[in-house]
């Protein structure tokens, strides 16, 4: 079977996310692929290097967020056939509180031979912290950083 296109790989990632199969999501990464979160704040990592780092990061995700739907995905193809830009919104519930959430993402995905070599995920850290119930801690860390 020929390698997946970048779009096929990304759409498979979303299917696995909805199925809460985080090991399978991590298996979509190249051995030395990266995941970058340029807007990450507080304790959230800005960069993960390697499939196993991605696996460790994702391991507890279903215990925090119950992603239930990703109703619309817009894929923008670039002049590089291995890179796409994707806009999507995830809907679900925060596991700890049961509160609903909606998070918007813009993600830049690059693959090599059907595996993710670079994943750049742009999301609103305030919305994510609010959904996870960690907003007070995030605001406190930002405030402490400003007063230094």
Could you give a quick summary of the protein structure above?
It is built from 6 helices and 7 strands. It has about 150 residues and is of the alpha+beta class. Strand 5 (about 85-95) and strand 6 form a beta hairpin.
Structure overview:
This protein has 148 residues and is an alpha+beta fold. It has a single domain, classed as Nuclear Transport Factor 2, Chain: A, CATH 3.10.450.50. Strands 1, 2, 3, 4, 5, 6 and 7 form a 7-stranded mixed beta sheet that branches. A hairpin with a 2-residue loop joins strand 6 and strand 7.
Topology:
Elements: H1 6-18, H2 22-27, E1 29-36, E2 47-49, H3 51-58, H4 61-64, E3 65-69, E4 73-77, E5 83-94, E6 100-112, E7 115-123, H5 125-132, H6 135-146
Parallel strand pairs: 1-7
Antiparallel strand pairs: 1-2, 3-5, 4-5, 5-6, 6-7
Helix pairs in contact: 5-6
């Amino acid at each position: 079977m020929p390698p997946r296109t970048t779009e096929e790989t990304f759409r498979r990632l979303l299917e696995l996310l909805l199925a809460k199969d985080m090991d399978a999501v991590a298996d979509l990464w190249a051995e030395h692929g990266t995941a970058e979160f340029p807007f990450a704040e507080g304790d959230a990592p800005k960069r993960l290097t390697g499939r196993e780092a991605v696996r460790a990061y994702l391991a507890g995700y279903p215990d925090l967020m119950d992603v239930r739907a990703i109703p619309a995905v817009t894929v923008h193809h670039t002049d590089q056939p291995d890179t796409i830009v994707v806009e999507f919104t995830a809907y679900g519930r925060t596991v700890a509180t049961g509160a609903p959430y909606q998070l918007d993402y813009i993600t830049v995905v690059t693959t090599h031979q059907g595996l993710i070599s670079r994943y750049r995920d742009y999301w609103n850290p305030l919305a994510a912290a609010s959904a996870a119930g960690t907003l007070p801690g995030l605001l406190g860390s930002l405030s402490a950083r400003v007063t230094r």
